[in-house]
Amino acid sequence: MRATSPTIGAWETFTIESSGGGVIRHGEPIALRTSSGAFVVAENGGDGNVMANGTFRAAWETFTLLYVTPHGSDVAAPGLPLGRAASENIP
Fold this sequence. Notes:
By secondary structure, the chain is mainly beta. It has one domain. It is built from one helix and five strands, in the order E-E-E-E-E-H. The strands form two sheets. It has a three-stranded antiparallel beta sheet with strand order 1-2-5, with no helix packed on it. A hairpin with a 7-residue loop joins strand 3 (about 40) and strand 4 (about 50-55). The chain is globular and about 30 Å long. The protein starts with 13 loop residues before the first strand and ends with a helix.
């Protein structure tokens, strides 16, 4: 996966999906879905390329979400784009 665009558009936007729904907590398994509906995939179980071509959610399409906060607290950030949530939590 390449992150080279100077602007944020549909191709640079992902939906974070949790298996349980509701508030997403630190350490929870999540999937990232693209605007076209494909899942982000860690090929070979994380030992290969990161692509956005998964057609369904399975182990290679599942990631662990870790929030980086100044105090290491369990923080939920519903409704914020991933990049914005990460940048707002940096001291």
